[in-house]
Amino acid sequence: MSEEPKNVDVGVDPGVDPIPNDLEIKCAEYLSGWKRALADYENLQKSNAQTREEDRRRVRMGMADDLLPVIDNFGYVTKHVPDVSGCSDEFKKKFDTWFTGIQHIDRQFTEALKGLGVEAIESVGKPFDPKLHEAGGSKKDESKPDGEVLEEIIKGWKFGDVVLRPSKVIVNEK
Question: Which strand (E) or helix (H) includes residue 131?
């Protein structure tokens, strides 16, 4: 004996259109569209943040590139101190004060570059690395290993892993 299915009243008036199903479908479509739009917006925010960081990095590198000649000139000044031994004590005192100020400005520039993420490339005493150094000549020093950097002619600078300018160096050649 089989049981006949009973008619179950689900609360739907047979004379009314099945609008609730259409509403559910529309709601699901709108929800899906809203989720896609939200995901697109989040991706746009991430992309904009990445673009801004790249722009900041490029600006810092450009500023550093503009400042490097100034830093070089301060380096030249501090390396080529004139001989004032024959001058008066008063002049020597004024000169020492002036030169101390020049050295201080040189350190400030170096610290400002460091603040931008720019660092000097260490060269003297290091093995010659063509990625970091440019050979400006060679000398022979038997006490040093072949290929070691003996002198730095022009200081090199890097921004993270990016070399802004390689160090121009004198390399030991046996």
Answer: none
